[in-house]
Amino acid sequence: MKLGFLQSWAPQLLSILRIITAATFLTHGTMKLLAWPAPFPYPLNGLTTTAAALEIIGGVLLVIGLFSRPVAFILSGLMAFAYFIAHAPQGFFPVLNGGEAAMLFCFVFLFIAAAGPGAWSMDAALGKDK
């Protein structure tokens, strides 16, 4: 089955990937600071509060596609840090240490930092992502 027809939709699909990933990521921060859509099950400390602020601010910026490349790069680093601090000590396999989401967020954000925000973004509308 040839799927070459999807190539012409790559900029829009990149935008959809960015928007859905960022909206999902945003809820990790709102759980921590706003107890929405559910309360965060662990006590907050300096690291988790800082992570929550980055998740909310970065998530909003990526949903709208503003400053997408630097924000995605910072969030990729945040997720790499979270993985190695919180998940890797629990075991090698991400499926067993609970780190699948952190790993996926890390590499999707790294891809967005490299590829850009896609066609449907504030960066594209403002001509800031060439």
Assign the structural class, choosing from mainly alpha, mainly beta, alpha/beta, alpha+beta, or little secondary structure.
mainly alpha
Number of helices, counting only DSSP H or I runs of 4 residues or more: 6
Percent strand equals under 5%
Main sheet characteristics: none
Mean pLDDT: 95
Q: How far apart, in Å, are the first and last alpha carbons?
A: 33 Å
From the spread of the alpha carbons, the general shape counts as globular
- Return the string of H and E elements: HHHHHH
Strand tally: 0
The total number of structural domains is 1
Q: What portion of residues is helical?
A: 55-70%
Alpha-carbon Rg, integer: 16 Å
Give the low-pLDDT segments: none
Note down, in words, how this protein is organized.
The protein has 130 residues and is mainly alpha-helical. The chain has one domain (11-125). Helix content is 68%, strand content 0%. Helix 3 packs antiparallel against helix 5 (100-115). The N and C termini lie far apart (33 Å). The model has no long low-confidence stretch (mean pLDDT 95).
In short:
The protein is mainly alpha-helical and 130 residues long. It has six helices and no strands. The mean pLDDT is 95.
List keywords for this structure.
about 130 residues; mainly alpha
